[in-house]
Amino acid sequence: MKNVWLIVAALVVSIIAHAFLIYYQSQGGYVAGPNDGLSQMVPFKHFLYETFHKGNLVYAEDFGFGGGTITQLAYYYATSVVFWLTVAVVSLFDVLGLVTPDLELWLQLTLFVSVIRLAAVLLFATYAYRLFHVRTSHAFIGAVLYGVSVIYIRHVTFWEFFADAFLWVPLLVIGLERIIRLGRADLFIAISALMLVNNFYFAYINLVFVFVYVVFRQFIHFPEDRLKRRQQWMFYVGSGVLALLLSAFAFIPATYGFLQNERPSFEHEIDLVRFDNILYDSPLFIIPAVFILFALYRPLYRQTAFRLFATMSLLFTVLHFSPHVGSFFNGFSAPQYRWEYLASFTIGGAVAVGLSHWRFERNAFLTAAIGTIVFYLLFGLFGNVTWPIGLVIFGLMLVSVASLWWKPLLAPYIILASCLIVFNGYTKLVLYDQAIVKTNESFVNSSDYDSAEQRELVALVQDDAAPLERLDWMVPLRNNTPIVQSFLGTSLYSSILNGNLLTLYWRDLEIDMGRESVSRYGSLGNRANLHHLLSSPYWMRHTNVASEAPYGFTLLAESDRYAVYESETRLPFVRTTTSTYRQDALENASMLTREQAMLTGVILEDGDEAPLPAQSINFTMEATDAALEAETLRVTTDDGGIDLIPDIPPTATGDLYVSFDIRKLEGDGFFIKLGGYRTTRKPEASIYRTDLTSMTLRTPMSERIPLRLPEGTYALENVTVEWEDYTTLTNMIQETNQRPDIPFTWDGPDLDFTIEDAEPGTYAVLPVPFERGWRASVNGEARDVLQANYAFSAIQLDQGRNEVELTYRPPFFKITTAMTLLGLVFFISYLVYVRRKEHPFT
């Protein structure tokens, strides 16, 4: 009965903690940040649900240009335990006809899942704290301080899957205590394995916590401890190895996906200290007043459990002020503050123990109370706190201190009320001060996200397109528009991406995306060659920029605000060629030369030839509201720069490719306009900067090309102009049209096609991103899938008829499956051994 009441209490507190969000959603709002929440969290959940229900468990052709879901989405939801439980429930309700699993449903479910998850966090933490001789009511209060913390609502609102990390910490502590006290590792192994499967990033953070906890427990002992230190470490190592084996099928591909991701190293200097007002208005970590009082109350340190939790809490609190620690927890990259829930857990434990072992001693209490008030006065006076927040927090502190003086029995309820007040107050600030209030039904259905007008044109393209043909379209700044609007696109935004595609955009072909940013790619720079090579014959934009349509594209349809263009010609999805070019021979070649090499043949690491260079043309430069001295350009207005005047015949047709190196010496961000095309570069201090200064921009043919920049001083170097008349593309289209079509079938991660009468040395070239995990067979014999054209795939064929089959499986599929099966055998054997040892006659 006690457990039933505990479950009810957890649900009630969780509902009260979400009260403001429940009201907000009842008024048409959604619990999702306007940036990553709407751009990644909700779209990925909807996308994975739809993908898995199609039977594509490991690969999706509509994930950008295509990609493995475990390697690139395990950081989010692909292997999330909470997500899969949600999927099971949604699938059941879907079968029963009770829900429609569309994007709106996943927007609404975030709040419901958060309420259930927080209740589970409260239960798990309560059971963990009870292990330290804490009354259930006091353990529950400690659990509330852990779960109902500002970092929980921050995680749920901005990066919803982050909040899952709260579930594992108390379970890990329970598992560790079972090892130390009972010599049983079964729970710790199971929890560790699930955690490694769930999310490798937070598994790393939680395992750091495990190490810290284990080290502290080496020096802080309890009477019920059974194992000696050496025995404990043997259990820890063995449990870790077994957990790794059990999780190998998901953990290893996910970790490989992270390692093959491409992201510039963080080169900026990291500050030694970062101030954060942890007593009043920190968006990450607000320490409750009762912990400050308990930490200053010396009699509590007689309790072993209090010493354990209090010292760990003080350590984590000090580390919170160090950006270097934030970098450490973020894989030694840019400092990120996502780990502070660890401090909330240990603070909750300290308060739970403190309440259970509270003994009033007047002098010690006065010292602690005065110290607490002084701390709050200092942080309030020098921490830039607004008066309303300051008065509320300071008043709650005084009430908490007074309750322990006058009515200690009321203290837990006052602490609970204070925690809920702070939590809901912070929730309101998140909604209104950080623009979350914009995430509502009206915004989600607007042109800034997913309007009906946009969807109508997308549907028209889908009706017109051949299988696997792509549409180059995204709502500005929303690279996951193809996922939201359910079409094959050319853009993607994710923290973990195919590194080959990122380097293709940044360096190999310098495809401009309209903005500089890591963790995303988008559009093909309006370059007609790439549209043909990558089977992307459709292009959609706002009518204001429709003049920038790729060369050879004509209007297909338009609405009031948008226009769709279609290429009049196509290259086949499966192309064949006998011409190969060495990738290193193109190291100093222009981007246009590389495009033409991809058209006339295929670029391979060990190709045979070096392609002819594209023809650069002469040009002159004239400054406009600017001064050009050598390679320094000083722009004196907010729209000045230079005009490029190419030496081309008046009758010339095609495009111009303008390449240059540019950086702003002041270090701030800036825009670049070339003709009618506009792109942006980030400030040098931005952690989302690519650190690349070389650019290639396509512009329609013109006698004068304006290059415009905001006011400032720029290093402008290596300016070149090339003329593309598309003769190469035209010749290749005519050549392929003379050959028979190559039919293909695509079924999830399987691609099959047949090529008749292949010449010796023929390669099949595919616009399928190269990834470890692809396997090919030609006429029933295994054949390597080659990395071709920098980021895509090619297969060497036999002479004559070739039946080709490609299949994708997660990287290291066979070995990781074998490891998991071996881990299951060991784990089951261990459980049988423990049972027989404890019950030898059953």
Helix share bin: 40-55%
- Beta-strand percentage? 15-25%
What's the quaternary structure here? single chain
Please state the overall shape, judged from the principal axes of the Cα atoms: globular
| Poorly predicted parts | none
Biggest sheet descriptor:
5 strands, antiparallel
User: Biggest sheet: strands side by side, in what order?
Assistant: 12-15-20-17-18
- Say how many strands there are: 29
Overall mean pLDDT stands at 93
Secondary-structure content class: alpha+beta
Radius of gyration: 30 Å
Helix count from the secondary structure assignment: 27
Termini, distance in Å? Answer: 30 Å
Write the layout of secondary structure elements.
Blueprint: H1 2-17, H2 19-26, H3 36-53, E1 59-60, E2 67-68, H4 69-73, H5 81-95, H6 103-130, H7 136-147, H8 150-158, H9 165-182, H10 186-198, H11 200-219, H12 229-260, H13 289-296, H14 304-320, H15 323-329, H16 341-356, H17 362-382, H18 387-406, H19 411-433, H20 441-444, H21 452-464, E3 471-472, H22 481-485, E4 492-493, H23 499-508, E5 520-521, H24 528-533, E6 538-542, E7 553-558, E8 562-567, E9 575-577, E10 580-582, H25 591-600, E11 602-604, E12 619-624, E13 626-629, E14 632-635, E15 640-646, E16 655-664, E17 670-674, E18 677-681, E19 694-700, E20 705-709, E21 712-724, H26 727-737, E22 744-747, E23 750-758, E24 763-766, E25 774-778, E26 781-783, E27 786-788, E28 792-796, E29 800-808, H27 813-838
Parallel strand pairs: 3-6, 10-11
Antiparallel strand pairs: 1-2, 4-5, 6-8, 7-8, 9-24, 12-15, 13-14, 14-21, 15-20, 16-19, 16-21, 17-18, 17-20, 22-23, 23-29, 24-28, 25-26, 25-29, 27-28
